[in-house]
Protein 1
Amino acid sequence: MSHDRAMVFGATGFTGGLVCATLRRLGVPFAVAGRRRQEVEEVRERFGAEHAVVADPAAPATLAGLFGGRERVLISCAGPFLRCGWPVVEAAVEAGVHYLDTTGEQPFIRMVADQLGGAALAKGSTVVCGMAMEFAVGDWAAQLAMRRAHMKRFEEVVVAYSLTGGGVSHGTALSIFEMFARPAWSWERGRYKKRTAGYARRRIPFPFGERTCLWAPFGEIVYLARRGTVDSAATYLRITGPAAEIFRWSGVVGRPLKPLLRPLVAAWVAAQPAHPSPSQRRASRFTIVAGADGSRVVTSGSDSYGLTAEIIAAGAQHLLSNDAPRGVRSPATIGLAPRKTLSSVGVMVE
Ligand SMILES: NC(=O)c1ccc[n+]([C@@H]2O[C@H](COP(=O)([O-])OP(=O)(O)OC[C@H]3O[C@@H](n4cnc5c(N)ncnc54)[C@H](OP(=O)(O)O)[C@@H]3O)[C@@H](O)[C@H]2O)c1
């Protein structure tokens, strides 16, 4: 490990805190940042971070402070990313620092891929959006399914999620609403098409039986589209619990009614617990199935939040210690071995 360190932006949030705890456990040097001074100082003390910085995307000049020391990787956990993420990733690329984030918002991932790829290459940064349970596990699973198929081109790659149990944090609930209430992208016969969450249904064979899933705008679509070897890519979701309600509201009526719904959703979210309890986290389960023209890989595990912290910390450790490929990349294309990494973070692969 070099003397370089990671900077965690959004360290005051639930996921940011888990990321700090994981970096500390792994012995990765890190600093913390957020927009509220007192909370950022508290987080620095709680996790023994080396340094604390106050920076606010609403005042982009303050973001320069994120790269004032030995920062080599910026980990952004501040979301919704469509609301506050852009100035942060732009500032990281401008500073020539690597960037990883926890976004689950596919339009944000596409925006970064389309607009910052050239600058990231020129500045020598590796930029990875969605280095989290969503969508790193699905990206690795798709990569394994494609390798298993031994083909050069793929007619269709499908990634389907089954999520059960568990609760969500305020940030996640707001991000789900942001993501599902606006049009996003599907990849169909070599082109992006604008689609809204839930526009299509499909029966997906999971290990526990076939289930109906709704089309969901997930990041793997952008990752797969950028490979240049996949004609069509689709992502589906089977979901239960409170997040399913947000999915239904926002997917079905969210787009036309979004301006009216936003304050109602914000009030509903504020009335929920700020983050899932330890028992909810333990009870949560995911199964992610990736299919590539007949070849199939199944991954499964629990506690999406803890897993996200493990995945993004592993990514930061990798970028601090290795010469990874530069530019805007997907989680599966920065040189981490999929099987080994998935098992090291506690995900089962079949
Ligand atoms: N892809 C995945 O699998 C995955 C997994 C976990 C989390 N996530 C995503 O990660 C993000 C954070 O989740 P969380 O669980 O940590 O939520 P959270 O506990 O509500 O924390 C949200 C964080 O974002 C910061 N933030 C929010 N709005 C901001 C703004 N306008 N400017 C600057 N900072 C802002 C908050 O700062 P303050 O403390 O100052 O409010 C806080 O640090 C969400 O977008 C969530 O969807 C994704």
Note: The first strand starts at residue 5 and ends at 9.
Protein 2
Amino acid sequence: MNVMNKLHKNLPGATFKKPKKIIKASVCSSGYYPTDSCKAEKAKIYTDYFVSGSYLCPSEKNPCPVHVATPTPVPPGPEGNGNGNKNNGNG
Ligand SMILES: [Zn+2]
């Protein structure tokens, strides 16, 4: 069974069209999918071309981890000595 020959028979000429798999997407300067936090932090957001479904393609499932909405950082005060007694799974 020679499937490839059959497939090649029906190939069009040497015209090149932008493949449908190539999509235009916004990407944060971090290389991830830009979120509202990126915009809030005035991060640079680019528009670029990606292969749809590629791991490089920014996706909502992979939002930018750099510009995340964090609560106001609490400056280290006398109360928190950083004893590391809290088991917050930081590692
Ligand atoms: Zn970002």
Note: Residues 19-53 form one domain.
